[in-house]
Specification:
transmembrane, Anthrone_oxy, transmembrane helix, 5 helices, mainly alpha, elongated, membrane, about 160 residues
């Protein structure tokens, strides 16, 4: 059984990945739908504001902190190689690092950066907006599932 500081590390991993999954779930289930219902200029302006607000300490501590915890959990798992839960711990770390953190860097951030370069009321932004919403939301669904799955398998490692 996992115990001591290692237990605390995994519990923090569960909390972090679960919180990130919740944020992504909110975006996938209602935020993006609400923004998509706005006229393009308003949707673009709102999303640009959200993207700026997202990179503040409150969210970044949870998002980046969960990545650091996932790396620590994987490293400690390789070093300690516990009798139980090793597969779940390594899988949880891989799910979060690749499916949430990594995917954010390669799928969502480039779309956010492209949107940031556009003027909200410009014709180019109006054309890109439905494409952005569709593609960004698709990848967000994947991030949500990966983060939730990471939290789940971390919990399974503790049982």
């Amino acid at each position: 059984m996992i115990d001591g500081p290692y237990f605390v590390l995994v519990v923090l991993g569960v909390l972090g990945t679960g919180l990130v999954a919740g944020v992504f779930c909110g975006f996938s289930t209602f935020v993006m739908r609400g923004l998509a219902a706005l006229p393009p200029a308003q949707g673009v302006a709102a999303m640009k504001t959200i993207n700026v607000a997202a990179v503040r300490p409150a969210f970044m501590a949870v998002f980046m902190g969960s990545a650091v915890l996932s790396v620590l959990i994987a490293v400690v798992t390789f070093v300690v190689w516990p009798g139980e839960g090793k597969v779940e711990l390594l899988l949880g770390s891989a799910l979060y690092l690749a499916g949430s953190f990594g995917l954010t860097l390669v799928a969502n951030v480039p779309r956010n950066e492209r949107l940031a370069r556009m003027t909200a009321g410009a014709p180019e932004a109006a054309v890109y907006w439905p494409v952005y919403v569709r593609e960004w939301t698709l990848w967000n669904h994947v991030r949500m599932v990966a983060s939730a799955a990471a939290a789940l398998v971390y919990v399974l490692a503790l049982t």
